Amino acid sequence: xxxxxxxxxxxxxxxxxxxxxxxxxxxxxxxxxxxxxxxxxxxxxxxxxxxxxxxxxxxxxxxxxxxxxxxxxxxxxxxxxxxxxxxxxxxxxxxxxxxxxxx
Length: 103
Prior knowledge:
Belongs to the GFRP family. Residues 79-103 are annotated as: Disordered. 17% of the residues lie in helices and 32% in strands. It is of the alpha+beta class.
């Protein structure tokens, strides 16, 4: 019987310049670790859970690598080809245009 490694969180998902709506959608918490001169967002979810959420948000994995005991994924989100001036704001929880949300 083979054993499959299952990594758990925390999973780093962004820095202080990350999209706030996306960080809220992921349920991320902002923190500053002692000795670091920057802020980071993290979640307690396993990486596979975060990747599933990001796929639902329109991102896809482009590449992945290991650095020591750390795994790093590079993701990309295609341009929606929305004409300039069009409102593309979405409710990150329901993933529907804000204009279609109940008032």
